[in-house]
């Protein structure tokens, strides 16, 4: 069961496009891309479970998250959509295509493969959970407290976008940090489905990232026989943020 419906931001009109963020992200990560796509499409930008303004759940894995998206589309009366996902969102998009192929008209996966990944983000999860938010009066204090564990300033600030305040004005996480931590191993697992997805699929690989290796190509083509794999040179894992114009060009060319 997928539970209560996900929070979604909607832009534009036309054929449906779904955008899915990565781990510790939210719909807001996609806003610049969504606004541009909305010139031609009805864009649904989704907060996945335990992220953004979507409901919190104790359970979290890709079949559940794919079912969440399918349920949202059904509730909106959307029978088929072009689905774009980055990182964790790319895995959700792939799982949706595998378990509900009739929902996915075209699939775009940004810098992630359907394989198992090492739990390399576990130190971030531990660092966030170790914070005693009640000790801090300002966001800067929290940012400084994270510096020893997370030296990268841009990464700290990205993670702290998930920080808000509760009704009493105290700092609180908007994400379900415990739920993410408890299920993190499941988010690293490989994908599978009852059958391959034979629709059109575009995998965008970042040239300066190791998320999609040459060894991943055979499994991608096994699960997605019609897949195109395109490398964007000179760009890291956040390809839609680092090279938005080229990302949009590739996606729009694929959509037509």
Summarize the structure in words.
- This protein is of the alpha/beta class.
- It has 2 domains: 8-117 and 189-255, Rossmann fold, CATH 3.40.50.1820; 122-184, no CATH class.
- It has helices at 31-37, 62-75, 88-99, 122-130, 139-146, 153-159, 177-187, 217-223, 239-242, 244-255; strands spanning 8-11, 16-20, 42-46, 81-86, 104-110, 163-165, 171-173, 200-206, 227-232.
- The strands form 2 sheets. Strands 1-3-2-4-5-8-9 form a 7-stranded mixed beta sheet, with helices on both faces.
- It is globular and about 50 Å long.
What's the short version?
By secondary structure, the chain is α/β, with parallel strands linked by helices. The protein has helices at 31-37, 62-75, 88-99, 122-130, 139-146, 153-159, 177-187, 217-223, 239-242, 244-255, and strands at 8-11, 16-20, 42-46, 81-86, 104-110, 163-165, 171-173, 200-206, 227-232.
Please render the helix and strand layout as text.
Elements: E1 8-11, E2 16-20, H1 31-37, E3 42-46, H2 62-75, E4 81-86, H3 88-99, E5 104-110, H4 122-130, H5 139-146, H6 153-159, E6 163-165, E7 171-173, H7 177-187, E8 200-206, H8 217-223, E9 227-232, H9 239-242, H10 244-255
Characteristic terms for this protein:
256 residues, alpha/beta, Rossmann fold, 2 domains, seven-stranded mixed sheet, two-stranded antiparallel sheet, 9 strands
């Amino acid at each position: 069961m997928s539970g209560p419906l996900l929070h979604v931001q909607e832009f534009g009109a036309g054929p449906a496009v779904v955008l899915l963020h990565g781990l510790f992200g939210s719909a807001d990560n996609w806003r610049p891309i969504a606004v541009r796509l909305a010139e031609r499409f009805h864009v649904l930008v989704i907060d996945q479970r335990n992220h953004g303004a979507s409901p919190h759940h104790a359970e979290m894995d890709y079949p559940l998250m794919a079912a969440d998206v399918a349920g949202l589309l059904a509730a909106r009366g959307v029978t088929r959509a072009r689905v774009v996902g980055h990182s964790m969102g790319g895995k959700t998009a792939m799982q949706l295509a595998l378990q509900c192929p009739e929902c996915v008209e075209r699939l775009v996966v940004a810098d992630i493969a359907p394989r198992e990944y090492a739990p390399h983000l576990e130190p971030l999860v531990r660092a966030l959970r170790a914070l005693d938010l009640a000790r801090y009066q300002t966001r800067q204090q929290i940012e400084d407290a994270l510096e020893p564990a997370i030296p990268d300033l841009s990464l700290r600030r990205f993670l702290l976008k998930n920080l808000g305040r509760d009704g009493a004005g105290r700092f609180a996480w908007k994400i379900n940090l415990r739920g993410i931590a408890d299920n993190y191993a499941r988010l690293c697992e490989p994908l599978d489905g009852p059958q391959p997805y034979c629709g059109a699929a575009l995998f965008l690989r970042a040239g300066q990232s190791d998320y999609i290796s040459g060894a991943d190509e055979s499994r991608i083509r096994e699960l997605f026989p019609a897949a195109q794999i395109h490398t964007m040179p000179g760009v890291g894992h956040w390809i839609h943020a680092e090279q938005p114009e080229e990302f949009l060009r590739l996606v729009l060319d694929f959509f037509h």
